[in-house]
Amino acid sequence: MTKLLAWSAAMLLVGGAHPAVASGNAAPGRPASIDAVDYVDDRRRVLWFDPELKKLQAQLYRALPGTVNFTTGWSQDDKRALVWSYSGADPGGYYLLDRATARMHPVINPYPEINPDSLAPVKYVRYQARDGLVIPAYLTLPRGREPKGLPLIIMPHGGPFARDNWEYDPTVQFFANRGYAVLQPQFRGSTGHGKNFVDRGYGEVGHRMQDDLDEAYIGWRNRARSISKRVCVVGGSYGGYAAMWAATRNPERYRCAASIAGVSDLQSMLRYDRKLFSATRYYRE
Question: According to the UniProt entry, where is the signal peptide (predicted)?
Fold first, then answer.
């Protein structure tokens, strides 16, 4: 069942119980109606209920294929819409859509110095953990390169009650530009993949959540069909803790670890989490 959590003139916040997809925002339309809802699975998506707007969304994807597109504003007569478009290999930009002509006009490029044609594509992949749980991940390879023989950076996200998304990440693109494959595992406990997936992370910091990173390496090795000893773990916040623990727990597997503002004092972190979050459920002795 979907529950209405909050309402404003600009947005409805909806909490859902879908077993494998993140909840999203609902866009209020005419009185007593909801025109659309957006949600996130492998990437952000928009589901329109209004038939005319559903056609509009199809126009957007024909005009800007391989991207995420959604409207951020409308003219008062509803004849023009401001559209934000981005992808894992495109920082994004604003376009003005003329509904009468179905033409898109670029209006704002926030990153004019970045050429999207030079960026590496980001793929959504899956691998299996040792207990059978399917772990989603984002894989970025250097542009024009095959996996075999590439050095690998495993990049766990922070949180751990968070997730990565199919969107431009300057750190990932920097590493790919320098010749590294980058794998971002959405280890158990990550949000956005359903309640059961989050629950599987409770009590597993340093344990099965860490195992999921090890299995990311094994999944990569199978995909690349080669055994590379050039593997590094890089992460920030919780990801920094996971990087340090990976190198400590399995020094034979990882050549290096880089911790960016990583957690090194778990007792202090627990005290902090107890005050502000429910993340203590992720920890156990």
Answer: 1-22
